[in-house]
Design a protein that fits this description.
eight-stranded antiparallel beta sheet; 7 helices; alpha+beta; Thrombin, subunit H; about 325 residues; single chain; disordered N terminus
């Protein structure tokens, strides 16, 4: 994982919007915070100033295409249908403080929801208290959206690969369908598409200059140049086969540095670790070497990384986190 940054206290009074959520308390993880009192609402109000974050989003809104503007019969609209906003309330086991976080998640066969582990952490000081996925959140007023509860304890997860698979109640796949998974290799320069809820806002897609970078490192990470923000954590990355091939997890893009990149985890690595996801991919007709091999009965989570001395709930560096840095 990329280098982590510690946070510092904001000088704003009142209850702060907490944004520093990830498996190791780092600032690059792309969840977005909200006041836990707003849990269950479609529109998450910004109760305090976010400095220049709102202007940043406004300047870059051209990179995010609203799903609401698509014809419902459009193939991209259908592709986006199983993707929703995952809202979580977490408790700090040391302080007892509760915070809210918002990520992106995808419905899979069996009413499973795939998102990042740092959104539903199972190690460290943050413990999920309740979670849900908001489907069809296409406009700010939330008209037409529908919420489904998620078991805050995932059935499978891995901190190192940063994925979590949890069950949703209410049979949401009967209404919204499910996404396809692929363990196919993703070479450099591959064109991609991300559908997500940046900053917890209505669903959008990123496809302008969205591609896997040419130079890829060793291991399970996929470097990409697709625009994301806080709240984009846990979004599937699709290739031309319209199957998910990677799971976005953290930012890192710098507009002044063309060699910078965001990070995702390759689905091939996750399928090799997850028995349930490997079975889903095989049933969808996309078997891979990982699915053909004997998958382990259950993944064993990696040992938790040491928490930062000032704790993962420090709300400083808010704007940097919103930018995904």
């Amino acid at each position: 994982m990329a280098a982590r940054h510690r946070t510092r206290r904001s000088n704003l009074g009142g209850t702060c919007l907490i944004l520093a959520l990830c498996a190791a308390g780092g600032a690059r993880a792309q969840s977005v915070g909200f006041d836990p009192a707003d849990y269950g609402r479609a529109q998450l109000p910004l109760r305090q100033t976010t400095g220049d974050a709102a202007a940043y989003v406004d300047r870059n809104k051209g990179a995010f295409e609203p799903i609401a503007e698509l014809d419902p019969k459009d193939g991209l609209a259908a592709l986006a249908r199983p993707i929703g906003r995952v809202d979580i309330v977490l408790r700090n086991t040391r302080s007892g403080q509760q915070v809210g976080a918002s990520c992106t998640g995808t419905l899979l066969p069996g009413d499973y929801v795939l998102t990042n582990h740092h959104c539903l952490p199972q190690s460290g000081d943050l413990t999920p208290v309740k979670a849900s996925i908001l489907m069809d959140y296409l406009t700010l007023d939330g008209q037409g959206s529908r919420r489904f509860e998620i078991d805050p304890k995932p059935v499978e997860f891995d901190q190192r690969l940063d994925f979590a698979l949890a069950r949703a109640a209410g049979n949401p796949t009967a209404t919204y369908g499910s996404a396809r998974l692929s363990g196919d290799a993703v070479p450099g320069n591959r064109s991609m598409l991300v559908i997500h809820h940046p900053l917890g806002r209505p669903k959008v897609m990123s496809r302008f200059r969205c591609f896997a970078v040419k130079e890829q490192g060793e291991g399970p990470d996929l470097r990409h140049r697709c625009d994301t923000l806080g709240g984009s954590s846990g979004s599937l990355m699709f290739d031309a086969s319209v199957a998910g091939v990677a799971l976005h997890k953290e930012g890192g893009l710098d507009p002044k540095d063309p060699s910078s990149f965001n990070n995702a985890t390759r689905l091939s690595a996750i399928l090799a670790r997850s028995r349930i996801l490997a079975e889903i991919a095989a049933a969808q007709g996309r078997p891979t070497a990982a699915t053909a091999a004997a998958a382990p009965p259950r993944p064993t989570p990696a040992p938790p990384a040491p928490a930062a001395a000032d704790g993962p709930l420090d709300p400083g560096r808010m704007n940097a986190i919103l930018r995904g840095r």
